[in-house]
Amino acid sequence: MEILGIKKFRKIKEEVDMGKKLLMVLAAFFLLCSGAYAVEVKFHGVMWNLVGAGNNNDIFTVHQPSGKSNYYLPVYGDVYGVKKGLPTYTDELSGWYGLTKARFRAEVMTDDGLAKLVWGQEVGTVGWGDGGNGFSYSGDGRNVETRFVYTQFKLEPFGLPGYVRVGLQPTKINTWVWTETAPGLTYHYKDDCLKLMAGFYRVEADNNALLDGSEAWVLKADYKVDDKTTLGGFFIYHDMQDNGFTVAGNPASPSDYYIGFTGSTTIDPVMLAWDLIYLGGETKIENMDDVDRSAWFARLTAGFQVNEQFKVTGTVAYASGDDDINDEDADNFLSIDVDVPIGIAFFKDSMLADCDMFFSEAPYFAHYGYTGFILDGTYQIDDKSKIRGAFIWHRTAEDVEWTDNSGNSHKDKDMGYEFAFWYDYQYNKNVSLRVEGTYLIAGDALNGLANDGDADDFYYVGTGVKFKF
């Protein structure tokens, strides 16, 4: 995405004409076969169009995506080209912009309801005027990508409960660890009390995916104790062997594991929800000392329904950071691939973020971690409209250290105070309108991110339309 010098975030497919023709052929095939072969075809989709403006636009240009590109291993510095320090942004880059993004999903189910094929395509966010990606004169850019494609079938014919899903599919394991898509094979089971998922993902491989590569084994369970309480847990073993990591030219192979406990309950009149996650593991490096990983993430939310129209919630979130980058213990928490919903200024709770404009996908600032205090209120005005506001104090878990332009050293944890708002209007059952915005009073630690070493307060305001069917 090239807007006001903004970096490109999404990979753009190279063969767009072929992709368009393939979509047309498959759509025609689905329609013809729905009668001849007695399958049920459903189409779903969503499109966002947003116009936004602000005085610090570069901070929203994806400085910290999650996944392998941000595997922070502080003691050895750069891994996958990402520095062990904070990513920087260009301060005071102001202006307005327009963004468009669309997703399309086709589901083809057999007439007996036992199996279905799901294929999702996406026009990754493109900025208005970006001719290289088709948003200039006459269009016709390269901007279509595969979001997921999988087959799902029930085990009922074999006398077994549940179903199997195979292919590129959503993970949705935990909001703070892994929610995005990955290719693999998973088993799913659900009854009135128990929800279970177990699976295997091959997230990266060598030699056209024929050799071992980065793999993950997952087990997740949620149990409904009663109408008010649900308890859950998950385990992930993430073996990133043969993944191309190098440290000082030496091959590195991280192997991490996550153990998570989740839950929610209501103790009238308060609703509680929580996550407690431990990240452990080891990174083996040829010709160098290995690095041990030991990190934590915790989140507690308490909500109170004041009346039928007004609800208020308070949240504390913590991701551990590394307090000594010179030892061989990595204490900073890492997510695998997520989109965390913490405000607008830094994370992904906005239509702006839906359109791939944000500072970070993951709940931390580099290896310094994160501590967030969030007060959130939602007021339902009527059947069609609601307004929401939030105050968020953003901090790092460990001190950010930086040197200003005069050569003076500083350290601090305060990233700033955010005041955010969202107004939603339900135009009809398919179309909703949004006005949103945020103002951040910059904290001292934000100076470590600003390219001029002197972070300014900043604002963003946007309005958009979402069409969903």
TrEMBL record:
InterPro entries: Alginate_Permeability_Chnl
Domain of life from the UniProt record: Bacteria
This protein's name: Alginate export domain-containing protein
Organism (species): Thermodesulfatator autotrophicus
